[in-house]
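1st attempt posting a full record on here, be nice pls
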Amino acid sequence: MNHKAIFFPVIMAALAFAAGCDKKPDGSAPAGSSAPAASAAAKGGGAKSGKKPDKPKPAPKAQAKAELDKKPEAKLTGEPLEIPGTNGAFTTPTGWHKSSKGDFATSFSGAGEAFVAASPFAKDADPTPKLQAVASTLELSECEWKDPSDVTIGDGELPAKVADGECQSGDRWVEVMYALIPGDDLNVFVFGAVTDRASDAEKKETIEVLRSIHKK
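the predicted structure (as tokens):
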């Protein structure tokens, strides 16, 4: 996805709040359908519409737990991505672009094929509304989620629930994952996404951003 043309209005989109996910994290079906979108959305641009991916939809991968559980905090060189209303922050790599939409702090890669969004969430809350909000903002559709897993993230061994998913954005499939990280001064929701055209470096950086969670 070229961030000059389209990008995830799902987290920061030009508010087409008709988006949603086909399945809740527990496998049940919430409401929702949304217009596809892409990279410039994060920068306030428009989104492609009416196009379908030319490849069959892949099944969600099982990688969130393997990539995040009991892994050391990623020590990235870049800028902090602070989550308003919490004591939590991530680090975004040099060359990524920060923005914000609503209560989401966001960052996307220079090529526009990878994206991270984070926001506060209510303690013990159902993650489904956050997933629907992020999908709406990024204009993701056709989202499908695997069951969540319990993990610990970073040097602080922060407990979290994580899950993998697969969504559509315009004519691309997008690998997605989220983490819910509770705590009296945290309660952070973070969402990472890479398109099917993302480079290996962008995929690696997206995982490292999620692993960079730390207290301010």
